[in-house]
Amino acid sequence: MASSYGYPFEQQHCLSISQFSRPDIETLLTLGNHYLDLDVQKSKERSMLAGKTLVNLFFENSTRTEKSFEIAGRRLGADVINMSVVGSSVKKGETLLDTAATLNAMNPDILVVRHGASGAPALLAQKVSGSVINAGDGVHEHPTQALLDALTLRRHFGEDLGGLRIAICGDIKHSRVARSDIQLLNVLGCDIRLIGPPTLIPADADKWGVDVFHDMETGLEGCDVVMMLRLQMERMSGAFVPSKREYFHFYGLDRSKLGFAKQGAMVMHPGPMNRGVEISSDVADDPKVSLITSQVESGVAMRMGILHALSDARDGVA
Amino acid sequence: MASSYGYPFEQQHCLSISQFSRPDIETLLTLGNHYLDLDVQKSKERSMLAGKTLVNLFFENSTRTEKSFEIAGRRLGADVINMSVVGSSVKKGETLLDTAATLNAMNPDILVVRHGASGAPALLAQKVSGSVINAGDGVHEHPTQALLDALTLRRHFGEDLGGLRIAICGDIKHSRVARSDIQLLNVLGCDIRLIGPPTLIPADADKWGVDVFHDMETGLEGCDVVMMLRLQMERMSGAFVPSKREYFHFYGLDRSKLGFAKQGAMVMHPGPMNRGVEISSDVADDPKVSLITSQVESGVAMRMGILHALSDARDGVA
Amino acid sequence: MASSYGYPFEQQHCLSISQFSRPDIETLLTLGNHYLDLDVQKSKERSMLAGKTLVNLFFENSTRTEKSFEIAGRRLGADVINMSVVGSSVKKGETLLDTAATLNAMNPDILVVRHGASGAPALLAQKVSGSVINAGDGVHEHPTQALLDALTLRRHFGEDLGGLRIAICGDIKHSRVARSDIQLLNVLGCDIRLIGPPTLIPADADKWGVDVFHDMETGLEGCDVVMMLRLQMERMSGAFVPSKREYFHFYGLDRSKLGFAKQGAMVMHPGPMNRGVEISSDVADDPKVSLITSQVESGVAMRMGILHALSDARDGVA
Which one of A27, B51, B88, C165 has the largest count of C-beta atoms within 10 Å of its C-beta? Predict the structure, then answer.
């Protein structure tokens, strides 16, 4: 694949789905798809980021996302530096902006940031000279997860996702994944439903271009895709659910609730799963209905595509 | 050295010494020896694993073993990704099989696994598409340690280890190293003795092709090699030894107990040592009787040899 | 830049400023400056350390220094292995010399060591065959920080620092940075003053070739540079300062105290800063008076220069 791809992708950062136009998103998904094919064939491109430095700056633990970016960067030839600052000297002794100044002085070309505070990656993007990628910030956004979800959907349903009915279920309130997915799937013309208990659906959700439901039976009707969310117990400050057992009874996805959706509906989950809380193992592990493994497979490739696009934009190639 | 070496090594994984034939072991030791010579000469081969991804997946801390594999992989040109999942989000939020699925989706070519549960690497080997190397599982096996021990012995005693009398001493019960060493040294025709207190020798040890002794004086008679084991306090759930002081008195290796062995006998220890508990410093640090530094030197080279053989087997070269 | 640079740099290690002659220091600063220019131009040299292994062995946490060496090593093509042994199995199970033996057996070409005990890197240098770089040992030295400070000063004041009046202020007692800076700046002909409360200035400081002051107003008179030190609360075993608030009142650098120094005086701090304790944010963040960002920028380049010089000395090129 040539470095140019028709449309002039000119984004310097990847902070939020809301920053991207429809053609931007098409470019990113096309590149992700390119690398997914490459990956499967086990050939690996090495030169795109040769000599460039990618820093993984994680203020929250996430082995899965961090390693996905590390592998993506290395496969494109970058030097990858992991800075896990959970409980480190950086966290104790420095403000976020001191960390930014320190990092910037080291001249990283790409900075992948996960932070517990919404907006932290955007703040860093103003202070550093390289490209910043948001790998999850507070309850704000997780744009690369949304892009890999869309890539997964395209692999299964074909390039045009317009009109696909997608239910996003469970803990919407604490989910940055849901916020990014909703924006992205709206751009791609999907019909989006949110299903969850009133305590876990934000009051203004009806303004997000979605339909809100509080029971699975009604909400799942006619759905092509059932996207389950992790119950974010660690981000909950109050009593949002009576018990895990009761939560599973009403909102956990099992075979019988899946039967409310359209015949042939597919299941997704961003991981890591709370098995038996928001999803049952027999549904999660059944390759006939589950796209969960496919989502993880799309992760490295989609991130390679994002790195490719940002790098070209920096170099003025696109 | 060419990629082929006569005998068709066809193993996909390195899970247990018991999976290997005598010719398999000869192939591995020959390759280890090749890299040990290369190492000494400071030339480094870079192309064998170029573009391949090696993931170090450690569920237990082991700086020494992890770094040994990391250096071995890098010297062969691999991308090495360290996933230490001690206390991480992987450990908390995911089952071993979810971790396997996540990893497999990232397409690693080689997965090096250390886990507290016996059999975990073998379980992973069924679920991932790459080669799995057991870097220590519970009290089951630690095959790469046994291979580097045999490589060390060959460097000192010559290629034929047949008839060599080797005492393995101390905490046999909790030692995966002992289990792998016993199998491997049996294949190579050694005469193996176990020495330790009855509480630290498994009841069925007499069926392992060894002679069992409970005192050092009798056990060490005529031995060419005295292999001491780390007292695995952290894996003991009961009171196996009365005190460290008393343990050293009866089973700790010092000059006087070493005198019970054959003139010129050599001392080994897989490390890290509890000095003054199972071994005295004057014995451990005396280059005239100790092969301990040579064991560590063999570590990186032996692991390069194992990576070489597995890679060739995958590619169908051997 | 050619690998040779006139003067025969023959140092095998970088343990202490006191080991270097004036021409040694000139060589190092010239190389640091070379890489600082290269960095800015974003071209990156890759071959100097290709095939060599750099091990970062950190017994104390320091994300900033560790990552600076990691980036420096990678940009020169080295394989970089991070061994953080804070609370790891190495720390628990092994003595420093066992760790040295283990490491040496892995044949690292360069060993970067940070340790809480003064002299630990020098001890390791006697036991390993590669080059050892002291990345901070106890309250002894931090030579690479002093070199990057000098490089920063040269970028601002020009090549000849002779006669420059420099005040080093605050917690001299617990500062290895101060000890290295004093030696290096003395060699370069600077006029050095120490300012701090009597409890934080060692009794023998008057023998270090410096003038000692206990109040900022007198001490800062005529100074070209005000170098603030981090108040090392974590290394203090007694009550050295009455309170942070009172400390700032007497010794914290703010606009009004900076007014005591020469017109146009510049401010430095090795980081990480305790804002509001030893320095106020408006001074630290003002690019017209602060060289703090420039210090960090010099860090990676200066370390590349040190690696370059040590590598050449090993290879007998210089």
Answer: A27
First to last CA, chain C: 13
Q: Looking at residues B262-287, what average pLDDT do you find?
A: 94
Least confident of A4-8, A99-103, A259-263: A4-8
Residue the block writes with tokens 């540079």: C225
- At A96 the pLDDT is 80
Rounded to an integer, what distance in angstroms lies between the CA atom of residue A266 and that of residue A223? 9
Which of B132, B76, B145 has its CA nearest to residue B308?
Answer: B76
Residue of A nearest to C274 (CA): A93
- Residues of C within 8 A of A98 (CB-CB) are 271-273
Residues of B in contact with A275 (CB under 8 A): 95
Classify residue B73 by burial, with Cβ atoms within 10 Å: 0-12, 13-18, 19+: buried
pLDDT in tens, chain C (318 residues): 434 566 788 898 999 998 999 999 999 999 999 988 886 545 555 678 988 999 999 998 888 899 999 999 998 989 999 988 765 544 444 578 778 888 888 889 999 999 999 999 999 999 888 999 999 999 999 999 999 999 999 999 999 999 999 999 999 999 999 999 999 999 999 999 999 999 999 999 989 999 999 999 999 999 999 999 999 876 665 677 778 888 999 999 999 999 999 999 999 999 889 999 999 999 999 999 999 999 988 999 999 999 999 998 888 765
Residues C257, C218: contact at Cβ < 8 Å? no
Interface of C with B (CB under 8 A): 51, 53, 55, 79, 81, 83, 85, 88-90, 93-95, 98, 101-102, 104-107
CB count within 10 Å of CB A170 equals 31
Chain B residue with minimal CA distance to A39? B107
Of residues A148, A175, A157, A167, the one with CA closest to residue A25: A148
Q: Where are the beta strands (DSSP E) in chain B?
A: 53-58, 79-84, 110-115, 131-137, 165-169, 191-195, 211-213, 225-228, 266-268
Strand boundaries in C31-130, DSSP class E: 53-58, 79-84, 110-115
Joined together, the tokens standing for residue B208 give: 């392992």
Q: Which residues pair with A167 in a beta bridge?
A: A193, A226
Q: Pick from C88, C89, C106: which is nearest to B68 by CB?
A: C106
Q: CB–CB of A105 and C61 under 8 A?
A: no
First to last CA, chain B: 13
Residues of chain C with C-beta less than 8 angstroms from the C-beta of B64:
89-90, 102
DSSP class of residue C272?
-
Distance between A297 CA and the closest CA of chain B, angstroms: 4
Against chain C, the chains showing at least 3 CB pairs within 8 Å are A, B
| A98–C68 CB contact, under 8 Å | no
Hey, what are C283's tokens?
A: 């001074």
Distance CA A254, CA A37 (A): 32
Which H or E run contains B28? helix B22-40
How many residues can be counted in chain A? 318
* CB-CB neighbors (< 8 A) of C94 in chain B: 271-273
CB B155 within 8 A of CB B147: no
What tens digit of pLDDT does each residue of B29-64 get?
A: 999 999 888 865 455 556 789 889 999 999 988 888
As a 3-state breakdown, chain C gives helix, strand, coil percent values, each rounded to 5, of 45, 15, 40
For chains A and C, CB pairs below 8 A equal: 57
Say if residues C162 and C223 touch (Cβ distance below 8 Å). no
In angstroms, what separates the C-alpha of A105 from chain C's closest C-alpha?
A: 4
H/E run at residue A115: strand A110-115
ipTM: 0.81
- Whether the predicted model's global pTM rises above the 0.90 cut: no
Note whether C233 and C204 are within 8 A (CB).
Answer: no
Q: For testing the chain B interface, which of C49, C55, C84, C107 should be mutated: the one with the most B CBs within 10 Å?
A: C107
